[in-house]
Structure formats: structure tokens, C-alpha cells
Amino acid sequence: MSPERLRELLERVQRGETDLGQAMAELRSLPFRDLGAANVDHHRALRQGVPEVVFGEGKSAEQITLIVAEMDRAGHDVLVTRLAADKAAEVREHCPELCYLPVARIGRLQRKPPRARPCAPVAVMCAGTSDVGVAEEACETLAALGIGATRMFDVGVAGIHRLFDRVHELERASAAIVIAGMEGALPSVVGGLVACPVIAVPTSVGYGTALGGLTALMAMLTSCAAGLTVVNIDNGFGAAMAVHRLLPRAPAA
Amino acid sequence: MSPERLRELLERVQRGETDLGQAMAELRSLPFRDLGAANVDHHRALRQGVPEVVFGEGKSAEQITLIVAEMDRAGHDVLVTRLAADKAAEVREHCPELCYLPVARIGRLQRKPPRARPCAPVAVMCAGTSDVGVAEEACETLAALGIGATRMFDVGVAGIHRLFDRVHELERASAAIVIAGMEGALPSVVGGLVACPVIAVPTSVGYGTALGGLTALMAMLTSCAAGLTVVNIDNGFGAAMAVHRLLPRAPAA
Amino acid sequence: MSPERLRELLERVQRGETDLGQAMAELRSLPFRDLGAANVDHHRALRQGVPEVVFGEGKSAEQITLIVAEMDRAGHDVLVTRLAADKAAEVREHCPELCYLPVARIGRLQRKPPRARPCAPVAVMCAGTSDVGVAEEACETLAALGIGATRMFDVGVAGIHRLFDRVHELERASAAIVIAGMEGALPSVVGGLVACPVIAVPTSVGYGTALGGLTALMAMLTSCAAGLTVVNIDNGFGAAMAVHRLLPRAPAA
Amino acid sequence: MSPERLRELLERVQRGETDLGQAMAELRSLPFRDLGAANVDHHRALRQGVPEVVFGEGKSAEQITLIVAEMDRAGHDVLVTRLAADKAAEVREHCPELCYLPVARIGRLQRKPPRARPCAPVAVMCAGTSDVGVAEEACETLAALGIGATRMFDVGVAGIHRLFDRVHELERASAAIVIAGMEGALPSVVGGLVACPVIAVPTSVGYGTALGGLTALMAMLTSCAAGLTVVNIDNGFGAAMAVHRLLPRAPAA
Amino acid sequence: MSPERLRELLERVQRGETDLGQAMAELRSLPFRDLGAANVDHHRALRQGVPEVVFGEGKSAEQITLIVAEMDRAGHDVLVTRLAADKAAEVREHCPELCYLPVARIGRLQRKPPRARPCAPVAVMCAGTSDVGVAEEACETLAALGIGATRMFDVGVAGIHRLFDRVHELERASAAIVIAGMEGALPSVVGGLVACPVIAVPTSVGYGTALGGLTALMAMLTSCAAGLTVVNIDNGFGAAMAVHRLLPRAPAA
Amino acid sequence: MSPERLRELLERVQRGETDLGQAMAELRSLPFRDLGAANVDHHRALRQGVPEVVFGEGKSAEQITLIVAEMDRAGHDVLVTRLAADKAAEVREHCPELCYLPVARIGRLQRKPPRARPCAPVAVMCAGTSDVGVAEEACETLAALGIGATRMFDVGVAGIHRLFDRVHELERASAAIVIAGMEGALPSVVGGLVACPVIAVPTSVGYGTALGGLTALMAMLTSCAAGLTVVNIDNGFGAAMAVHRLLPRAPAA
Amino acid sequence: MSPERLRELLERVQRGETDLGQAMAELRSLPFRDLGAANVDHHRALRQGVPEVVFGEGKSAEQITLIVAEMDRAGHDVLVTRLAADKAAEVREHCPELCYLPVARIGRLQRKPPRARPCAPVAVMCAGTSDVGVAEEACETLAALGIGATRMFDVGVAGIHRLFDRVHELERASAAIVIAGMEGALPSVVGGLVACPVIAVPTSVGYGTALGGLTALMAMLTSCAAGLTVVNIDNGFGAAMAVHRLLPRAPAA
Amino acid sequence: MSPERLRELLERVQRGETDLGQAMAELRSLPFRDLGAANVDHHRALRQGVPEVVFGEGKSAEQITLIVAEMDRAGHDVLVTRLAADKAAEVREHCPELCYLPVARIGRLQRKPPRARPCAPVAVMCAGTSDVGVAEEACETLAALGIGATRMFDVGVAGIHRLFDRVHELERASAAIVIAGMEGALPSVVGGLVACPVIAVPTSVGYGTALGGLTALMAMLTSCAAGLTVVNIDNGFGAAMAVHRLLPRAPAA
């Protein structure tokens, strides 16, 4: 509630145009409303062009169907992350308009394409072919946010010439999401090559000493390349949302 | 080496203006030179207005003095991070122009102030008074990069009204560096309140189950607020460098 | 004290050779003599209105059926915790009076409702919808103990206005059970808002750095809000039992 | 702001007794004020008779002196926890009225004794003589809160008759704080003996597999005795604060 | 000793140039000469009355069948540990004389009962009903070694009177195998009650902070009762073998 | 059983209203009746010839002096374990009769030598020279218990011929305490060579992946040699006490 | 690009025999080409006689079929590691020429046998029968590289005479791959017996404290035998590749 | 073989009842007969030109002096690793011929230079200046073994052009020891560039998530570059010894 609106309300009370009950109802919801408004504004800002997001893991197909249907009725776009193929099939029986992206394991219901963001594409890089699922989760989340992605897959450090072949493309990116399992070395190399924001995503790819992704995670956090930041293991969605926070928004239409 | 310069070189060879030995010397260093150039360019981009950084921990006062003196001679600005007070005193005996910031544990030798970056200040928040050292490391690094900081200290979640008193300031920030030890809950709350980039820094503050900062680190990586990113424990410098990567650069003078 | 010595003592009493005071002194110092009684009394006190509890995990449907049937014959009420739906169905074929609560994963056989405890309801709060199973385990255990619960679900810190909307309700609670997975930040915020006992329950919700609930557990134990206490991961039952210990008992009928 | 006060304010506006500027000033601060008030009320409730608490570890004697002096000026009572003997001596040079308890490592500045709480003493038990420091931290914190403590030290499970000798005392306690290092078994035994609230405190006593207290912590959380709750390693202060939350308050004078 | 030297030595013996004492001295010091014999002797001593042991986990029914059949042909008794019920059924189709003990998960092929060992029975204690499988593995291994066992199940510390009811039996035992999951507190209590050897076995019973048995393991190793020893998680077989090492052997027939 | 009920029972006996059999039945079931005595007996059995043991680590020289002096007055023998040399010197200023063993870090006050135990010496083996302190702690504890020890030091598996040179001695031992840091492999080899009880002691010797002794500990617990048992890291005292439990006692004089 | 070829190119430019566009195309790919060439050379050296390797775990049968078919078309030999039997069956429906080795879990498509390497066989040793799968992965990888292997299985340290029976064979090996699960002690013993390169492979065999192979891994890294090196848990392939790096190559045909 | 049987065999030889071939066959199979010799031979082979090695950490200057003096008298060369500067000074007071290398923290007493090994130098690479101590430990150990080293320091992946500048040198190395702390990424890159043996050494350089070197260790073990092997954290000596095992020996003089 802006000062202007508050003053106007009080003037109406002063002039007797608004009775006390109505004024109190309006004011009583203030304590959290302004905060709410702030939140909502921010949420609006944060979510501008962002579909509602449902975390699909650990929810039944039935539960997901209910949520998606409800949001559909409310006119919201929806992104269901970590959605297994069999559950997606069940959900799509009732919500056929939900589009399923099997590699990214994302279900998407988006009425019209998001407005394109005014920036260069984001480089989404991954070290090995087994990291592609996480990379696609990042790419598709970016797509749903109106942000373009340049896929640079299978450019791990053990065959580092594959990375160098694409340095020029990399240099043009507005940000880089760098995904790696195993020893998680790729972000350190990329962080030394480019000046843009680099968000590192460890993956659970590997066995034994990979420790389910903890080794890559710890390696990325300990990177000798300054200014890297890191998200949770396999969290391609989170990396895309971090990019969403740092790129300029589309100007209001 | 740009295509233009390469063409020009070959034309000079073709026209006989450049002898083969000279051309070969120029070309032989190509394999890594262009890459180096790219790197250097990037480094230049990345380091535009950034002093050289020396990690002071585990180096003797003597070693640090040598490095600082050498960089001083070369005309580089220097930032020595994690520099203990007693070492700083020793270094300053030989390099009195090195300014020491005891809370941030930073030594700084900067001939002229950095060019101010064209953006709103960064909110540097910390949960408790014991996190102030890390927060100051972030603030002073930002300062050395020409980026302003709004200090919001002691706004931890156990007295959450202190945070809410400063929400409006927070909303104006171009990015937030959120520093917390103990259970590391502050970034989750901040991430839900604002839309800007939020970089979380766990600290080693606490005892027992704080596990030297690992608990805060893991909590931040697992945050339910989407799009947070995280750096190493106590790494205020790294958080500032991540901000440096994502904020717009000062236009070339 | 050997049977012989005891018999001899009693014979002396019988023959009037030992007076009662002396005999009692001798018997009273029998080590731990009263302890059993004390224990039994306490067990009675502790279990006043508490059904017998069977930990269902790792037991076969057959074993559970036997235990429930035996307790039923003995007239005891029974609570079977962590009881999977398929096992519950099997048990109910033989013990149809066992009522099954699928979300709480509790089987309950209670002949008459427990006597209501003389206190305000307990706030049972959880951060996300995935924590509801643990929250319901707490609520249903409380119900079986005659303690009312106010459910406040999905009030996690990333959308903290949802929590603040319910602060007044929270203030009226006689205790709060605060359940959260992921980074486990909710109990710290709640602990700073209210003065009543707060029992934190970490859940195994999350992936990667959630470490199966260890991250939330460690975060809660390290909380900067003073006077929180914590129970095992996913242990909604244990939290309810802790509340049972601290609330006043129903007066003897 | 209660509805009554809000109505009264609006009536004054309606009657022209309050001008708009004044009304707006009063209302503008609403968003966080009511929350703040709630907090403050709660804080007041929570802190009724509770001195301000300063965490002494990691602060210099100089910093502690400043804080204590400032609180002294403001008329607040102060408790400095985890205060090393040498720092305490330094602080006491400037604040001689700060009383130092070396075993509990607590500095206390309390003008008049706290009002006694209307409840039986709390049993503060510890397994071995090395746990006495943590036990004293709990006892002295309770004392500062007006809560009596019955010390039962050195009653560990390897000589369990020592515990049983004191069962009757234990039965009369309004709550039990059970402190143990090493394998941390004592709370399980106590939890099976008494019906009152039991708060377990692991300590860092031991070597090798004691893992700095983590073994005792994990053992306590996994206890087979229902309804135990646990606080951080060595956190005698936290256990006392948890007791403070669950015991009845002294009636307003 | 090279063949040449050996031949030369024997030739000297043959020619009478070296007397037998000298030759034996030379040969006796052949490195490790007696070792093999010693090993065999020891193995014989160690295995006196001990069936061959096959670790069943991770072997297919087919592989187990082959091994059992081969040992059967060679006249050896066999114990197959950690043998799942379905595999046992498959093995028994070909080796019907293999007797299967489902709770202990042991397959046993023993032609005649082992000779009884000249000692009192071993107390095999476990804290909860979920530990019974491990306890039975210990009991059945003891039985196959000719050692009697007194089963004391479900005597955990949270209801410590159940343990005390059986103290007299416990006192008569020649050794105690004490099995516990969860917090693993039982061995500490037993170790303080009796003077005989106490071997502690942690089990993987429990969830969350039980950490798959690591909590019980660490607690047992850190026990404050002196002279306890510990074996691997769930290793009832190993505990029985440790008892086998320490009890007197049956005299040669 | 309350005093009232006990008095009433005795009165009935006195009046001849209750016969002895019935009275005894009632009294015999007094829970834990004999337990105290049993405990004391056992403690006596367990401690026959065992000095009182004081854990010296974490206690001040002043505290140790007090305890030792008190025990000295009471006529008890004393063993102070983990006693640093400087503390020992301080204690010996007041208790000059305390003998200090610097390698074992044991202080011993024993008026007359313990009675020799009727058994062959115990083999105390260690893998490297850095394990000697722990080995001496075991040897000196054994000595204080009247048990002889054969020292076999520096027989680690990387030079396994050193071990084999002493196999015959090893075969004659009544038990083996096998001490090793680093990878902790020695107990597995010894356990395969001899049939006697083998108690493994991991040490904190090593760096990096030695993990302060956890690697050796885990390796020993996972040993493929059946029937090994393990004690805490560096716990030479505990291993000796375990041997004390399993060897025959000296016959009563 | 060798200096000779560069000079020749420039001479052609100088002489006008090569136009600028063609020269530039040739030179423009220099920056990474020379490096690539180096890599390729090395890769050629490294891979001389080495089939392409596909990591089969976490890939679908369909994906593996595509890759194998493509490589087959390109004339490359292929090794698919960690290939489950059921997937192998599916792949072989489309690529019947892929030979499947079930114990090694390797699929191999190799047109002609590799050229034999000029060196003695490699000793591939494993401690127990459960380690055979990893051992076979090593042996079959060696075979595909033209390197012979001497299998020494089931020679673990708990029955160390089995190892000593084969010492002479071991002494003739050009390198030793030593595979062990459980406590991982075998490499330390072997490392002390032979002078050749010893590569230790921990396996995930065991339960409880085996920690999925981490215990064996840490034990091997902490080995007291100097000069051992270690690879990832269960990584028989990696050990064979390490041997491949250190053995002499077959001379060019 | 018992003495009786041995005597009987020799008597049969003496009496001519057993021919030599049969006697030899019987004796040759004496278990482990030749083993000792074999061991000694091997040790000789393994240690050809290798000084005796003393692990200096955790030994007093006095102990080291004794060992060095004794070896000196026996004519052995000595290498003392992990020798702190102050201890070295003390030792050198009594053994002035011991040369101390402070960066490598090695004390060396070598009468004449070792014979040079017939192979190209080993590349000893490290990622940062803080790793130089470990690198020098490797270089000086190599030197003592007669193996040359090419130092390539400060070539970490965050400035990867520094590595590429030295690729040609690297390609000529007979083996590479690659040392890195922090995220430990360098060995992966090097392993992809060269075909020679690559031994990775993690260092304890870093803070927070570096976890004292565990992060680098785990990263190296999980490396995506095939055929890398790894040694313990900070173990430059071990890496040099591994190289010693794999390089050809100097021909016998």
C-alpha cells in the first residue's frame, strides 16, 4: 500500500465517505499485506514469465495431475521438474496439453512462448554424455524463461581440445552453466577462460569415489578459479534460475 | 591474432616485405599465443579494474613482501587476502604503502581508486556479529573493484524482524551477498524476498554440529529458495568476485 | 541376599527374635529394591493413556498381526508406526478393527478415545508438502495421546509470508513441532517468534546435498535460536512423545 | 496493534481529532511494527527474567568488555557464555561487577536474583567427571533463570548402581538435562526410568571414535527411549534454555 | 636356499661328511620352514570342530551349490552365512542335506554334532526384537562349534528392568555377546555388570541417525566400560568366532 | 514396594498370618534385589588385583594430584592413563611415590606387585615404531594386572619376514594384542596365523588418508580373518582390560 | 605442424604458389590444431592397439547399440565396460559381433587380436572370490591391449600361505594389479614382497564397515609399503590402463 | 614338517635308502622355503640405490639422531622425510654430514651420488605455489634415486595457458608426477594430454571445502582421464617411489 493510497483511505474516513468497518477491514490486513505486496511484487519480478514450478520427485502421478489441473484452471503456466517418464504418461492421460521432455525429465504446460530476454544465449556445457540429462533440465528451464542456450556437450577436461574448439562461442555467452560429474574439473578451466558469470553444477555421475556427486561438488566449491558459484548436485533447474536472477529482464511490453 | 592481422602478415610475406624467419617467429608462437591472447583478453576483461590477488594464508611475511614489492614495481595494484595482523605488520615495514584492513584481513595497495561500476550497491548481509570478518572481506573486495556495498549486519533469522526492517533497502540492491554460519538459514529467507542474484557464503562460525561451516554450506546448497548459488566456507572474496562477474562493467573511459 | 538369609530373617521375625524396625532396615537397603516399583509407576505415569507402540518397519505383516492380536486380547490399545500400506492391508485381514492412517503410515487400535489433555493445541508445522507424512505421524500420535494439534503445513521460509499469516495461531500453541527437510531453516525462524517449547524434526526430503536428512538435522542442532531441541530424522512419533512428556497430564478421573 | 487501538485511531481521524500526518506516521510503521510488537512481546515472554546472552567464544576481551559495559549502562542483566578464564580476567578489570564462574565458563552480571520459578528443581545429570563443565553451564544458566537444579554428577551407565542410588531424587525432578560424552548412553537409560521431559546433551569428551562428540550426539538422537530430545554438542546453555521454554513462568508480580 | 645348495647339503649327508645335527640345524633355519606346518596346525587348532564357512552374500545359488557339493564330497562340514531364503531353497534342491535356519540366515551341513566345549553357556543378548536375526546368527554359529548359548533377547536399556531380571543368568555365562542397533548402549551397561569377556555387535537396525549401524558401532567403541571389544556391523558370526578363540577347546578324544 | 507395604508384610509374618513361603515369594521378586550385591561382587571379581584407573587426559595436574592422594590414603593402587610428562612431573611433586612411565604415558602407584596370572604371556605386537606408545600402554597395564607380555614391535606387513621370524613365539601366546596405524593390516595377517584371541588396536599414526586412525579402525573391523575384535583408536589400556577379562584369574590365595 | 611444414607453407605464399585464402584456412585452424595434433599423436600413442572405450553403466541398451554400431562402421574396435548381462543381450541382437564377457561385464568388438606387448605378463591378484569380477575386468582390458595376465585369485592375507605359494610367479611379473575388498590389506603385503609397479584396486566387497569400498580405498592409500598407487573403487579397467601407460609399447610393425 | 620327520628323512638319505631326487622333492616343497631369500633379493632389487628412509614426523630429534647415526655407522645412505627445520638443526649438531633441504623438508645423508637411471627426466608438476613443498619432496626423492626431474610449477588449470606453454617438455617426460591441492583438477588435464604414466598427488592446500586434501584426493581418484593412479595426500615421497618402481633400473655396474 503506497503512501498515496493510505492517505486517500484516511481522507475518505475523515470525510465520512468510508465507514469504520470497511476501513478496518482494509487496514487490518496491512501487517503482512505490505510485506506480502513486496513479496508479491518481487515474486512477480522474480517470476516474470516464469511458470509455476512443481517438484515432481516423491509425488504420485495422481498428486501431480491434481496440481497441474488446478494451475491450468487458474491460467498459470507450469513446469514439473524431476518427472519420471511413467508418471508423465499417467499425468498426460488427464492433462494431454502437458508436454513432456524425457531427457530433461520436465513436464511443461505453457500457453504461449515466453518473451525473449534481451541478452546473448547462455552457454550450457557438460563434461560427459552422462551429464546430458542435467544439462537439458537447465536448457529447458532457460527456454521456459525466454532465455536462449548454446549447448556445448561432452567437452570434459580429459580431452581438452574439444573445449578449446568452442572457446570463441563460449566467449560470446552472457553466462555459463558448467555441468560435470566425476571429478568436476570443467568449471575451473572454464572459469579461467571467460569473464562472464559461471555457475557450476555437480552431477551424481560416476561410481565409488564419485560419492554420488559429493566429490564433484566439493571440487567445484574449492575451485582455484575466482568467482565461480555452485548449486546442488544434479540441480540443472537451480542453475537456470540463478541465471534468471542475474540476466536483464525483458522490458515491460 | 585476428584474421585481419593474419591476412596482413601473409600479405607482407607475399609482398616480400617480411622475411621468412620473422614470419615464422611470429607464427610459431601461435598455437598457444592466440589462446593466451584470448585468455589475456578475458583476463583483462575479467580483471578490468581488479588488482592482482595474493592468497596470504600459508605464505610467510617474507614471501608476501617479495610478491607485493615485485607487483608494486610492475605497477600492479595488489590485494592480499587472509592476511594475519602480525604478518601484515611485517610486510608493512618494507611496503609501508600497503594499507591493512584488520577486520577484513586484507592488505591493499591501490594507487588510485577504481572506477565506480554503473550499478546500485550490493547488499552484504550477515547473520551474526561473528560473521563480520567474512562480510568485510566481501565489502572490501567489492570496494577494490569499484562496487558499492550496503552493509546489513546481524540480521539473522532468529530475530527476523531485524531483517524485515531493512527489506526496502534490500530490494534496491543489484545483488545480495548473504553470509551466515551456524545453521545457514538466512540465504533461504532472503532468496524468497528478493529477485536479484543471491550469493550465499557459509562461515565457520559455531561449534559442535556446525562442523566448521559444513552444516551451513550444505544447508545453503539444499535451500528451498530457487536460484541461490553458493561459494566456499568463509570465502567472502569469492562471493565478491562472483558479483564482479555478473554486474555490468564500467564503460571504457 | 540369598534365599537362605531371607528365610532366616523372616523366621526371626516370625519367632519374634527380630523387631520390625530392624527387619525393615535390613530389607529396605536391599539394593534397588524400590526401583522396580518406581519404574513400573513411572511407566504407568509415562504411559497413562498411551497405547502400546510397535515399530512396524522391518517386521513382517505376519509378525505385526501376532503382536497386535496379542495386545488386543490383553486389552491394550496399540499404535503401529511406520506401517506400509500393503502390510497394513494384510494385518487388517486378521485384525479388521485396526484402523489405518495412510499418510501418517500409522495403524491404530484404540477402543475408546483418549482423555483430552488440559492444554492448548500443539502447532504442528511443516515447511513443504513433502513433509506432510512426518507431520501427520506427529498429529496422529498426539491424537492418540489426547492432545490436540493445529496443522500449519507448507509454511517454509522461502515464502515466509505464509508463516507470518499464521503467527497469531502459533502464539496460542502450548508447544510447536516444526518439521522441515531440505535446509531445515524453519525451526530457527519459529524459535525466534515464540516462547513455547519448540521441537524440531528434520526430514529426509530432498536430494544431493540434503544427504538424506542429515543436512536439516545438523542445521537444526546448530540453530541460532536458543532452546530448540531436535529428534531423529523423520521421527514425527518421537516429537509427539516429547510433547507428551512436557505437557500437563489429564487429572486422574 | 490491537483492533481496539486501530478502531480508536480511525475514530479519532473520523472525528477530526487526529490530523492525517499523525495518523499516517502511526500507520505507516505498521507493516513490521505489529510483527515487531508480537516479537517483542514474545521476546519479553521468552526473556522474562532472562539476562541478555553474549556468546563469548571468538570475541576478544575488548569486544566483550564493550558489549557488557553497554548492557550494564542500559540496565540489562548479562550472561557471557563460553568465556575463557583469561578473557574473563581482562573483562573484569573494566567491569569488576561481572562475576565469573570458571567451571561453567560463564560471566554473569545480574543486579538482583531472578524470581524463583514455580516448579520442582531440574535434575542435571552427567555421566563422568569430564562432563562437569557442560553440566555447570546448564546449572548456572538455570540459576540465572530462577530455576533450581539438582546436580547428579558421575552417574554413567558403566557403574549403573550409582544412577539407581539416586532414582528417587530423579523422580521428583520437573525435567532432566542428561549430559554424556563417550558413547552417550545415559539419556536412554534415564528416558526409560522417568516420565518427565528429558533433554540430552552430548559432550566432546573422549578420543578416537568419540569423534569430538558426534558419536554421543548420534547415539542420543537414535535412542530407543521415546520422547528424548537433543541439543548441540557441549550446549549446556541450550539445554537450560529448552527447559526454560517448557517450565511454567513465575506469575507476574 | 637354492636347489644347488640343497643338493650339496644332502650329498654331504649321503656321503657322511655332515652329521645329522648339523644338517638339521641348517635345514631348520630354512626361512619360514616350520611356518606352513604351524599354520596348518593352527588352522587345525583354530578349526577343530569348525565347519568350513562360506560367505553366502553376493554369490549366486549356483555358485553356492557347487561349493557346498564339493565340500560335501570332501567330507567337510559347511556353514553358509548370510544366505537368503530363496537362494537356500535353490541350493537345497541339489543339496537336500543342507539344513536352513531362516532367522539366522545360515545354511548348515554337519554330519554329526560337534563335540561340546567344556565351558558354561555364552550369553547372547540383544536389545530389541529387530536384532534377533544377528543374535541367531551368533547362536547358531556357536552351536556349530559345540558352544552352548543362553538367549536373552529384547533386554534393551530403555526398559532396563528386563535386563536386571536376568542378571543372575548373565553372571554364570562364560562370555557375553551383546547385540544392539539404534544407539548401541546395551554393551556399556552389561560391561559394567559382569567380569567376563564382552563382545559387542552393532546392528544396522534403525533409521536416520542410526546411519546403517555406524552410530551403534562408534558408540560401542567409545564405551566407558573398560575391556569391551567390538566386531563389524551385523556380524553375529564374527562374534561367535571371537568367543571360539577365547574359550577352552574340547580335550582331544 | 512402599515402606508401609513392607511393614504390613512383616507384621503379617510376625503375627503368623502369612507363612514363610508366601512371604519369601513376595520378597524374592523385589526387583533388582540381589543386583547391587552381584554388581559389587562382580566389580570385585573384575577388579581383583586391578588398581583404580584415572583417565588423565583433560584433567589438570591439580585435579589428578587430589584424586591420587585420596586413593593413596584409602589404600588403593592407582593407574593414571594418558598422563602427559609435564603433568606427571607436577603430580609427582606432591605424590613422589607415583611412578611415571613416559613411553606408556602411565602413572602408577602400586604398593606391592600384583599376583601373577596363571597363563602364558600375551603377545603385544605393533606394526611400526610410532605405535610403541600405545603398545607400551597395553604392556604396562597388563603388568599392573599381573599378566606377562612378549613385546614384538616393528613387525608390520610391508616387511612381513620380520613377523614370520617371530611366529613361534607368537604361537605360544595366550592372547595377542595387535597394534597398527596406517592401513591397519597386521591384525588380519596375525589372525590368520594363530588360533588364540586377537584384539586389534588401531592407532592414530599416519597422515592424510590415515584419517587420525579411522582408516585403521575400519580396516580392522572389516578384516577377512574371522574372530578378531577391535577397541577404540590408541586404546592400549582397553585392549589390556579385554585380555584381563578373558584370561583365567589367579586362584584365591 | 612442424617448423618444416610451416616454413614450406610460407615459402609457397612467398612464391605465390598458395593464395592467401588457402593459406589462411590452413593457418586459422592452427591455434588448436597443433595442440590437437599433439593430443591426437598422444592419443594415438596412448591408444595404440586400444579399442574405443564406452562406459556402459547408466546408458540404455539402445544408446549403447547406437554407439557400438557407429564405431563398428568407422572401423574402430570397441570395449564396453560395466555392461550388465541383460543390456548386453539387447545390444547383441543388433550387433551380434559384440562378444560379451559376463564375469568381467565387458562387451568387446575387436576385429583382429591386438599386437602382443613386449613384456612379461602382469600379475592380477585378488584377495577373495568376490573380487573376481573386478579382476576379470582388469584381465580382459589387458588382453584387449595385447598384455598378458597371470591370474592369482583368492590369495588374501587371512590365509597368507596361499599368497606365498605363488611368490615365484609374482616375482616374474612386469607389474602387479592387486585387488582387494574388505580391509584391503593385500597390496601392502605384495608391495613389500616385490619391486615391480604395484597398482592397488579397492573393491566394494563387504558389508557394514566396508563402507562400500571406502575402507579398502583408504587403507590402500595409507599403506606402509612405499610406492603403491591406487585407483577408484572397483576400477579394474583403470588399473589395466595404468599398466598400459607404464609398459613398453609394441614396436611399430 | 616336524623335527622328527626331518631327522628321519635325513637318516634315510644318510643310509642311502632315499635317493637325492626324492629327498629334494620332499624338501623343496617345504612351505615358504625359498621365500625369505626371495624377499631379501627383492628388497635388494627394490632398494638398489635407494637410501634407507626414516619417517621424521612424530619422532623426536633425539630419536632421529640415534637412527641416523646408527645407519651412518652401518654405511647406509639415509633419507629423513617430513623433517621439520628445528629438528633438523638439532640432528645436524650431532650428524653434521646430514644435508637438510628445507622446502622439501628432507634430511639426506648420501655418501656418493646415486647412479643415474637410464631414462628421460620425470615431469614434476604442481598447480600452485603452495604445493611446492610436496613437489620438492618428490624431486629430491627422485634425485636421491638417480632420477632426473623437470620442475613445472604453478601450472594450475585456472590459467591453463601456463600449462600449454610447457606441453612439449611434458611430452618428453618418462613419467609425470602431478601435484595439486584445492579441487585437484590438474591430473585430469595432464592425463588427457600425455600417454606416459601419470601419478597424481593431492595436497592439503586450501581451506573449508578443501577438507584437508580429501576433496583433491577424491577428485583425482574419480578422474575421467583413464589410467591415472593416486597416492596419499601430500605424499610426494610415495609418488617418487612409485616412479622408482616403474622406470628401468641402472644396469649393474
How would you characterize the overall build of this protein?
8 copies of one chain form a homooctamer. Chain A has 11 helices and 9 strands. In chain A, strand 1, helix 4 (61-73) and strand 2 form a beta-alpha-beta unit. The first copy, chain A, has helices spanning 3-14, 20-28, 30-47, 61-73, 85-94, 132-144, 161-164, 167-171, 186-193, 214-221, 236-246; strands at residues 52-55, 78-81, 99-101, 106-109, 122-126, 149-152, 176-180, 198-202, 229-230. Chain A has a 5-stranded parallel β-sheet, sandwiched between helices. A 4-stranded mixed β-sheet of chain A has the order 1-2-4-3, with helices on both faces. Chain A is of the alpha/beta class. The longest helix of chain A is centred in the N-terminal third of the chain and has 18 residues, at 30-47. The two termini of chain A are 24 Å apart. Chain A is globular, with a radius of gyration of 22 Å. In chain A, 44% of the residues lie in helices and 14% in strands. Residues 28-47 of chain A have low confidence and may be disordered. The interface between A and C is medium-sized, with 19 and 10 residues.
